[in-house]
Amino acid sequence: MKVDGKNIRPIWLNQNRKTVNIIDQRRLPHEYIIADLETVADVIMAIKEMYVRGAPLIGATGAFGVFLAAVNSEDKTVPDDYLINECNRLKAARPTAVNLSWAVDRVLTVVLKSENSKRVKAAKKEAEIISNEEAENCRKIGKYGLALIENISRKKNGKTVNILTHCNAGWLACVEYGTATAPMYAAFDTRIDIHVWVDETRPLNQGARLTAWELGKHGINHTVITDNAGGHLMQHGMVDMVIVGTDRTTYTGDVANKIGTYLKALAAKDNNIPFYVALPSSTFDWTLRDGVNEIPIEERDPDEIRYVQGLDSGRTCNVLVPPADSPAGNYAFDVTPSRLVTGFITERGICNATEKDILGLFPEKM
Ligand code: MRU
Question: What is the residue with the minimal CA distance to atom 15 of ligand 1?
Answer without folding.
Answer: 169
